Amino acid sequence: MRLLYALALVLLPSVSAVSAYAASGIVYEYEEEEPESSLIPRLSSLQQVASIAREKGVPILVEFTTPWCQYCEALEEHVLKPLILNGKYRDQIIVKKLEVNAYSSIAGFDGKRYSSDQISRMYRVSLYPTLVFFNANGEEISQRIVGITVLEYVAGELEKAIDVAVQDTAAI
Hints:
45% helix
């Protein structure tokens, strides 16, 4: 009798758990995410981008963003994408996006690997989106743009900042 009682204590919880799972009707599927199609290429190496910028004689604009930032999405959709699509700055600046999170890493200007979070802290970026301009030597140039208020205002400020960055780069 004790054996039957012990067996019931062991089997009953597992049977009820299985039946509760089956009754819930939840099916868990894990699919790989589709690669994002964005006009703004992801940054994988500051050193590599700096080499291209040096060769072309242009500044680098890095958009610091996070996966959960709705303001970043609005900035991209309503300011950065139209800026890229109109072609006005096509040969004057390199635009890249750095998604800041704990698990991705990129090469810094010095060629060493850093987490995107470390790069963000290195350049004192703590609010997203933040737009930072660099020359090919990794020095910050022009005025950074932090956060967004009114999209039209940000677009105007961005164009001014690009013009300053282009002039600063030409002076080097």
